[in-house]
Design brief:
The complex is a heterodimer. By secondary structure, chain A is mainly alpha-helical. Helix content of chain A is about 70%, strand content about 0%. Chain A is globular, with a radius of gyration of 19 Å. In chain B, α3 runs parallel beside α4, α5 packs across α6 and α7 packs across α8. Chain B contains eleven helices and twelve strands. Helices cover about 50% and strands about 20% of the residues of chain B. Classes of the chains: A mainly alpha, B alpha/beta. At the A-B interface, α1, α2, α9, α11 and α12 of A face α1, β2, α3 and α4 of B.
Chain lengths: ~325, ~325
């Protein structure tokens, strides 16, 4: 197996087909309900994808190294909370808030990376610990009450406004624009930079990389830091969308992001994965959730169907791989 | 391989879903309720009431809410999907009113009436709010307390908090009724335990130590009431305990006789009245701004009555 299936390129056939199944879902829901394929509903789906999508892009990087990050959900919340502290409590200007979110994310990612790479704590345990630490810190900092951004005009436009809507008559929310930019940059890093090359190499055979004289600790920490910064962007998006930093939110979001990554064909054992696949995975998740709701399927069954789709998607992907080798 | 299987799966799932929903008549009014929760027994009881009203009035009702009360964004997504279905009216219990405002405005622009329920929505967009009249309910608790302690003596309140609407209303409803109608009873102290069992237990013990002659204590929600029960048990005092809401611990305390009785809200009524008001609003009828969904006093004698046990939860 090639360790260098790159970002947006790679196995074109697979992605075309994954994309096709997304299209089939969309067509199916559109036929089932006239209310599904409406501009406002499609925008609602994209808006719902933005936060999970950004988180999924971040954790894709880590999963390709053969690691996992369970702290992304609560890290997102912690970044949102710190942005609230800087903007609302300290009254700083908006750009500083953005910087705080990304900076907090990068710093926490750096800590997670250090725990995994330097202290050799298994990623599952290290980030499980971080998940709880960050959840607690968010509650402590805020005193369990949400922080609102009413004093920062323009903050809600980060996710809710529509720059694209001013150019063409399609009100694509800015949050979606941010998701595509983040995904584009991540795909470029994976496909075109040294960091990207080592990300795949670490996931394929870390020992071989180390023995060939590469400072694996450094590169691993760099990847966790980058993924943390991306979680910071997700924090910014969710805070902007809710016009508030909700300190109790975040637990469970890591699993949704990981599900999107897995549906997108990234291997949990590392060494293989694409950002485009993750994007499609995230879209499949939110199209499903929204479509089932629009069809008024009972919430209990929504959960069952979503779970079943994850299993089917991953099984199908494995069958395809087995057939090829 | 990948596609064929995925496609098959997707098509199968879709046909299953369309089959399930195909039976719904298109000309029926549709009213979705977006709640603060779904799995909790309290919300299941609200759903029962909503479904009952839906069946009686011949409208299609759906009920959903996020897994827990922290998932503000999930609730917003549910509201967005509900709006996409072009409903006749929407019932909504906001987890965070401010976060929901853009979508509520969207509903307003599309002329979709919004009916708030339970704790309601902090905005002037909802045409009506179906909730418990906490002031009146706590006043009933005060009357029952007075009756149980013989109309005179000292009582105390362990409240769940001093900022939320329910916290303030339940405290004031109780204290004001005592002042107005029971002049021989004195509310010696009001303490706040945040609805936390342990904290409320410690508060209760402190109250009992400071006022050995106290006759009764009122706990204003499930956590506070259980805390009061624990505090009274631990210090071995003989006082009349009056609680609020239900839950297994509180029901057990009432059956054992440690708690004299409690106020229960009527979640079934909340669901029922919400749908009823939503349908009225959709038809252009005027609806009452504040709909009191009712409440009951329950104690050892009536805890197993069908009318009461229907609104209690574990």
């Amino acid at each position: 197996m090639s360790a260098r299936e790159s970002g947006l390129g790679g196995n074109a056939q697979q992605k075309l087909l994954a994309f096709a199944s997304l299209i089939v879902l969309v067509i199916g829901f559109s036929l089932a309900s006239p209310n599904f394929f409406q501009v406002s509903n499609i925008m609602a789906i994209l808006q719902a994808t933005s936060v999970n999508g950004v988180l999924a892009v971040g954790v894709t990087l880590i999963i390709i190294t053969g690691g996992i990050d369970l702290s992304i959900g609560t890290l997102m919340t912690f970044c949102a909370v710190m942005t609230g502290v800087v903007l609302t409590w300290l009254g700083m200007p908006l750009p500083l808030g953005v910087l705080t979110a990304v900076g907090t994310g990068a710093l926490c990612g750096f800590v997670s990376g250090g725990l995994v790479a330097r202290m050799k704590i298994p990623p599952f345990i290290a980030t499980l610990g971080m998940m709880l630490v960050l959840k607690g810190l968010s509650l402590i900092v805020t005193g369990t009450k949400p922080i609102y951004f009413n004093d920062t005009p323009g903050f809600t436009t980060i996710a809710q406004g529509s720059l694209i809507g001013q150019i063409i008559p399609l009100p694509v929310p800015n949050g979606v624009l941010v998701l595509f930019i983040v995904a584009g940059v991540a795909a470029w890093i994976l496909g075109r930079t040294v960091l990207g090359r080592y990300t795949f190499a670490l996931g394929s055979n870390e020992e071989a990389v180390r023995l060939s004289g590469v400072n694996t600790e450094f590169w691993k920490i760099a990847i966790y830091t980058l993924a943390g910064a991306i979680c910071g962007i997700a924090g910014l998006l969710i805070a902007s969308r809710l016009n508030s930093a909700q300190p109790a939110l975040g637990l469970g979001y890591e699993l949704e992001a990981i599900a999107a990554v897995v549906i997108g064909g990234t291997s949990l054992s590392g060494g293989r994965g694409t950002i485009l696949g993750t994007l499609i995975g995230a879209l499949i998740m939110s199209v499903l959730t929204n479509g089932l709701r629009v069809l008024s399927v009972a919430p209990e069954w929504q959960t069952v169907v979503t779970g079943a789709i994850i299993i089917v998607a991953v099984y199908a992907d494995q069958m395809r791989r087995r057939g090829r080798s | 391989m990948f596609t064929r299987r995925t496609l098959l799966g997707a098509v199968a799932a879709l046909s299953l879903m369309t089959g399930a929903t195909g039976a719904v008549a298109q000309d029926k009014l549709y009213v979705p309720l977006i709640s603060k929760g779904f799995q909790h027994q309290f919300w299941q009881a609200v759903k029962v009431g909503a479904d009952k009203a839906g069946a009686e009035l011949g409208v299609e009702v759906t009920f959903e809410g996020p897994d827990n009360e922290s998932q503000v964004d999930k609730q917003i997504d549910m509201l967005a999907a509900a709006l996409a279905k072009k409903p006749a009216a929407i019932g909504f219990a906001a987890l965070d009113s401010q976060a929901a405002i853009p979508l509520l405005k969207q509903a307003q622009e599309a002329n979709i009436p919004v009916i708030a329920f339970d704790s309601g929505v902090d905005s002037d967009i909802p045409l009506a709010t179906a909730s418990t009249d906490n002031l009146a309910a706590a006043a009933l608790a005060a009357d029952k307390m007075a009756e149980l302690i013989g109309g005179e003596g000292k009582v105390a309140v362990v409240a769940h908090d001093q900022t939320s609407r329910t916290g303030v209303d339940r405290r004031d409803g109780f204290v004001n009724r005592i002042k107005e109608s029971h002049p021989n009873i004195e509310v010696v102290t009001i303490e706040y335990g945040g609805g936390d069992h342990l904290k409320s237990t410690e508060i209760t013990k402190a109250i009992l130590t400071a006022n050995p002659d106290i006759k009764g204590i009122f706990g204003t929600n499930e956590g506070s009431a259980i805390g009061v029960v624990n505090g009274v048990k631990e210090s071995g005092a003989k006082v009349v305990v009056v609680g609020y809401d239900s839950g297994k611990a509180q029901k057990d305390a009432i059956r054992e006789g440690v708690m004299a009785g409690a106020i229960t809200q009527n979640p079934v009524g909340i669901g029922y009245e919400t749908v009823k008001a939503a349908v009225a609003a959709a038809k252009g009828e005027t609806v009452e701004k504040n709909i009191d969904t009712g409440f009951y006093w329950y104690d050892k004698t009536n805890i197993d009555n069908p009318e009461i046990s229907a609104v209690l939860y574990d």
